[in-house]
Amino acid sequence: MPEANDPNNPVPHLPESDDISVPLSALQHLAFCPRQCALIHIEQQWAENRLTAEGRVLHDKAHETGSESRRDLRIARGLPLQSKTLGLHGVADIVEFHRKPDGIWQPFPVEYKRGRPKLEPIDAVQLCAQAVCLEEMLGQPVPAGAIFYGTTHRRLDVSFDEALRAETRRLAGAAHALIAAGRTPAPEFGPKCRSCSFLELCRPEAVTHSASRHLAQLMDPRD
Fold this sequence. Notes:
It contains seven helices and seven strands. It is of the alpha/beta class. Strands 1, 2, 3, 4, 5, 6 and 7 form a seven-stranded mixed beta sheet that branches.
């Protein structure tokens, strides 16, 4: 296994694990919508719209160049990741390794997203989970990373503080529980549904209105 401070091979090997593992992307899906997470990771369904297609192209471009090597910077693309602690696995878009003055190569994960920065830490949780994977695989702290947003063409630096790490652990546990239960939650219509690629498949507005009418009929004192 290459050392974390090896300038010729900073890419870590994937640790072996017999534990149940779920994809890193499940955390972002769960944070956005538990039903979407279940449709993807329990029912194995996928629906694509313009937004998801643009996101896929952006991820493909991030992976296609391959590794790069400069004097004080190594860039690994499409790096496999795994965390035994959180029971997660996936692939990092980019992991930069910056050589510090003491000669140690500091990992810095970079995730690519097509849209704009969000108020909720939906994207930051997925990036933080990548950092946890790197910490376990390399045995050294990963204090920060960045998210590159395709719409703004800018990076947003993310500090992996304890609050974000706690939310990452919570969502990892919730994702495991949801997938292990094997039940898809009922739809709840909201503003975010309009941009969801599962809108036509899920039909949350129709189901929610139908359920509301049914409850109203049950509670109608005239019946």
